[in-house]
Amino acid sequence: MTSLTTAPPAPERTRTIDRTTVRAFVDEHIMPRADAYDREGTVPEDILERIAEAGLWAPFLPAELGGQGLDLVTLGEVHEEVGRGCSSVRSLLTVHTMLSWALQRWGSAEQIERWGRDLAAGRVLGSFCLSEAGAGSDAAGIRTTAEPHGGGWLLNGRKKWITGGQRSDLFLVFARTETSIIALLVPRATPGVAVLPIEDMLGTRASMLAELEFTDVRLGPDALLGPASFAAGMVLSGTLDLGRYSVASGSTGILQACLEACAHYTARRTVGGSPLRELALIRAKLSDMVTDLRAARLLCHQAGALKDAGDPGTIMATWVAKYFASTAAARHSTEAVQVHGANGCSTDYPVARLYRDAKVMEIIEGSNEIQRITIADEAYREWSL
Amino acid sequence: MSDTTATQILSFIEARFPQARIDRTQDIFSLGFINSLFAMELVMFIEKTFGLTVPNDELNINNFRTVDAMTALVDRQRGTVGVA
User: Fold this and answer.
1) CA–CA min distance B82, chain A (Å)
2) Most buried pick, A11, A33, A280, A336, via CB within 10 A?
3) pLDDT tens digit string along B49-72?
4) Catalytic (active site) residue A365
5) By residue range, what is the domain housing residue B36?
6) Tell me, what CATH number does B52's domain have?
7) Where is the Carrier domain (chain B) (predicted)?
8) How far apart are CA A261 and CA A89, in angstroms?
9) CA distance A194 to A218
10) pLDDT tens digit string along A106-147?
11) Chain-centre distance of CA A99, in angstroms?
C-alpha cells in the first residue's frame, strides 16, 4: 500500500512522453508479461512503480504538480500504446486519469495541494466509483448516500466493479444527497471503508476490480469535489468523458495488437505448404483491421484535439470514438482468434486475451447501447428539422 | 451587459437545439431539454469563447437559467460589469 503522506517531490528529470517512447516502454516492460498478469489477476507493484518512474500516471497535470502538462491528443496516444500491451494496465491508467483530471478541473486549491503531487507521481493511485449492483450506466439509480454530518459528510453504501479498487489509495465516490449527486474524495484508509476483491472476470482480469463498502464513513467538508449544486452532474459527465476517451484509445490499442498478432502469425503459419497470408480471406480480414484501426485512431485524435481546444464538440466526438473503437476492437479480436485457429483459443498467443478484453470495452464507461442512444439523439437534434 | 456576448450564447443554444424558440430572458431549464451533458457543453462553450474559467462557486443554476444570466456571469468573470 502506498503511503498517503506526501513524500518529498522526486528529483526533476527530463522525460519525453510521446507515442514512440511509450511504445518502447510497453514493449519492454508490459507486453512480455501481459498474459501473466491476466492469469494471475493482478498487475505487480514493480510495474506500477515503473509506470510512475516513466511519468505515465497523470502526465497531463501541470509541471508545478510534477506532471508535464501533456496535451490530450498525446495522452490518448499514450493510452493507446498501453492498451496495445495490456488492457488491465490501461484500465488502471484510465481510472487514475479520471480522478486526477477531476481534481485538476474541479478541486479547490487546498484539495489540489493535498493530492495533486502524489497523484502525478503515482504515490497515490486513484479509482472512480460510480457503479453499484443496481446502477451502472443508469447513474441516476445510485443508492449510496452522503448526508451532511458535523459540517462534513456521512457516507453509506456499496460500489461495485471498481477498477483498481483492490489497490487504489484514493476513491472518487459518487453519492446521492437529498437534492443531487455529489462527488467525494475518500481515502482508502478512512474508517468504515472496506475493500472486497472481485476476481475471475471475463476480461481485463488484472485490473484489480473490487466492491467497496462504506459504513458510516465520516468525511470532512474538504471531501466534496466540485459543486454540490445542479452542476455536480457536470463533474460526473466530465469525468466519464475523460474515461471514455481513454477507453476509446485503449480499444484502438487492442486493434493494433490484433493486427500485429495476425500479421506476424499469418506470415509464418502455413497451410498446404503456403503461408496463410496468401489466402484471400485472410488478407481481407487484415485489410479490414487496417482500415478500422486507422478510422478509430482518427476519431480518437479528433476527440483529443477538440479537448485540447476546449471545444464542447469533444463530448459527442468522444462518444463516437468510443463506440466505433470498442465495437471494432470486439469485431476484429474475434477475427484475430479465428485467424489463429485453435492456437487462438490457447494461452500460447495473446489474441484470446485481446478477445476477452475487447468485449469489456463495449460495456465500460457507458455501454454501447447508451452510446448509440446518445449519438442518435444528437443526430435527431441536428438533422431532423 | 454585452449584446455581443448574449448573441453568441443565444446562437450556441439555438444551434444545439434548432427546435427551441428562446429569447434572452427565457428560463432554458423550463424547456425540458437541458441535461448534464448539455450543461457541460454550455460551460465549455462559455469558457472557450470568452477565454475564462467558471469557478465552482459560480456554477449555480441561476447563473445558467437565462441568456442574460449567463451574459452577466461572463461579464463578472471578465471584470466588465457596468462597462457594457
Assistant:
1) 27
2) A336
3) 999 989 888 888 889 999 999 999
4) yes
5) 3-78
6) 1.10.1200.10
7) 1-78
8) 19
9) 14
10) 999 999 999 999 999 999 999 999 999 998 867 788 999 999
11) 11
